[in-house]
Each structure stands twice: as structure tokens, then as C-alpha cells.
Amino acid sequence: MNYGIAVFPSAEIQEFANHYRRRYDPHFALIEPHLTVREKEEWNDQQVHTAIQELERAAEALEPLELQFNRFSTFYPVNNVIYMALADPAPLVRLHQKLCAGPLAEASKLYAYTPHLTIAQSMNDDELHDVLASLKNKPLSFQCTIDRIVLLKQEEDGRWSRHREFLLQKA
């Protein structure tokens, strides 16, 4: 089974993102708006058990994260994706580094980790530029507190479910 690690923004932010995702994201029905912390990977039962132990340990030592979305951006020309970007990605980058080390270390990646909330993907170049042009002048200002890490499991139909949640507990 495929597993991944993500955080989920507030309901208000998810609702806003879904306004665009319904139209521009073919994965809309497969997963809620989220920020990926660790990419999906096929894990066996032992790897899932190890991941749960590591996530429990990490969550005990981590404080909730404050995130602010302040603009729309894109990965073009590398990837035709439009996303909601963070004013300060450092807290999520640190979380990614912490969770992708030790037993959960990832194989080397082609791209640097860039925390983001996808609102559009799998578009041709013209559509991407049209949509991005319409969004560039729209103000974007959302804040939320991330108080948990979520271990996701990909079901046989391709949908992602919340396998387990880990509350960030450091006071």
C-alpha cells in the first residue's frame, strides 16, 4: 500500500482551495486540500509500524505550526501546477526535514522540498498561463494553525484516507 504524510489547513482554507480544485485539479475527488510533508511511498506492515512510532515521537516534541498563505505561484516550466504559497515556508521545511530523516529517510529527490497547497494541475501551458494570469492580481491572505500530522493511506480506488493522526503536543 502507498502511504504519505501531510498536514491539512483549516476548513476555511480548504473550502477556498476547493473552489479552484473542483475545476482545475483532476485529483480533487481523491484527497482533501493538503500540504504534503513526505511523498507517497509503498510501505509494508513493518514500515508502517516504524512510521507510526517515528511520527508519535516527533509529534510529542513538536509545537503547532503557524502558516500564512500569501500568494499564488507555479512550478512552471518544470511542472504545470498552480499552488497557494506560504509567506514563510521554513516551519514546514523543518518539519519535512525532521520527518524525512532516520528511519523515514527518503531516497534522493530531483527537486527541493517546496511546501505548497495545489489548486490546479495537469493543465496544458496555455491553460496554466490563463489561470495564473487571472489569479496573480487576486489578494490571498489566509492563516491557520497546524496542530497535527496525518499519516495517509491510498485506498485501492486511488482515494487517500486518514490512516492515523498525530497531535503536535509540545507546550
TrEMBL record:
Kindly state the positions of the motif HXTX 1 in this protein: 34-37
- GO MF, one example: hydrolase activity, acting on ester bonds
Its EC number(s):
3.1.-.-
Asked if the Swiss-Prot or TrEMBL record annotates the protein with the keyword Hydrolase, the reply is yes
What does the UniProt keyword field contain? Hydrolase
Query: Where are the active-site residues found?
Result: 34, 116
Sequence motif: HXTX 2, positions = 116-119
**Which HAMAP family does its entry note?**
2H_phosphoesterase_YjcG
Q: Which family does it belong to?
A: Belongs to the 2H phosphoesterase superfamily. YjcG family.
What the entry lists under NCBIfam families is as follows: PRK13679.1
Give the protein name, as stated in the record.
Putative phosphoesterase PAESOLCIP111_00766
